[in-house]
Write a structure and sequence with these properties.
The chain has 6 helices and no strands. It is mostly helical.
Amino acid sequence: MRDVITVNILTEWYLLAEKGIHSITSSHLALTVFSIFTIWASVMDIKTLKVKNELNLAFLLAGVSFWILPSNALTLGVQHFIGLVVGFLLLFIPGMIANHAFGGDIKFVAVMGFWIGPYAISLVLFLACSIQALNFIVHSLLKRRSSKKIILPFAPAFTVGFFILLFISSF
């Protein structure tokens, strides 16, 4: 009985996340803008290990513009703001506990949460952490003899996680 309830909850969660993904994909322009921002942030994070505040602000303002202006994009209503808060808290709380500064990454994920909503950002976070864990294992195996601490950019994992979710939801 509990297995059935768990499957039903996970199915419902995924369907709600799918609505967040479809709120972007309903407009080709919104999907293009979202893709450009996430890929740009990923490239910057790979090069500098930082996602700049200016980029996050522009990304947020673009999302708010799509939400305010009459279009078919960003149709979740107040869920967009809940996604912003959820995206922020999903990284801020662990960052505070671990005493690790994820400044730009936290803001990047918060803005992604605004665009895709709370359910989708939580699934993207799960996928991004899975990708990052695999990335860490590969880097650890390749640099086994190195005593340097491994530091990996996080924005690319979120971008890939989003595109995986986008691919899955297209079926």
